[in-house]
Amino acid sequence: MSTSSPSSQPRRFSRRWVECVADIDPDRYERMVRMTEARRTLKISPRLQELIYVAVDLQVAHLYPDGAEVHIVAAIDRGATVVEVVEAMEISAGLTYRSLSTSLAIVASTYGVTAADAATTDHQDLDLLRIWPDLGTAGERLLPEVLPSLIAYVSAPDREKTLSDEWRALITVAVLASPAISDDAAVGRATAWCRELGIEVEDVAQAIFCGSLIGTHSFTRGYPSLVAASRLDRDRYSLGIVD
Question: What is the DSSP letter of 14?
């Protein structure tokens, strides 16, 4: 890591963590600039990209509200409506229920409970049940009263959707492929959905790329922490560790 002064080139970002990168690791900063420029070559809509970032940042296993707020503002600046942002949040919330779906299937199998026919659900076409089908089979047999109310709360199936099926599918596959979920079987179901809708393979790959960018949050959180730690009073915060 370089400890030299930051590049004389004007900074292209204003967020605090980026300032930290530029101050203590100017080489990384320049690499980030080049990656950002490369991202501008993506074919998928910048508005869709921002909605993907919102959905991933609001995944329960990740929950990065600072990033979500930045990307919500960016999405709106790129023409997204409040309703579209809410629908991206709905998609993210619904995809959280992998563990519930899987666990209920295990319980049904262990206790010999015959799963309900998927057709018995009132919401069989929901994106949520497309990805987690056991919620509509084992789930509705084991939790017939509460599960429909959860689905209604999370996915609001009675509302008319603003996002196109194509964008919903791309947001879905991006979130599922992100480190926040990373479920191979679910990615397969979502990819099949994208193909059914006629979405080009390049668009699917680019959506997945966007969903995977949260790996850089190690830097987003790490560099400010490094700056803060470097300013600590070593005597006050000593853990008794000898160099």
Answer: -
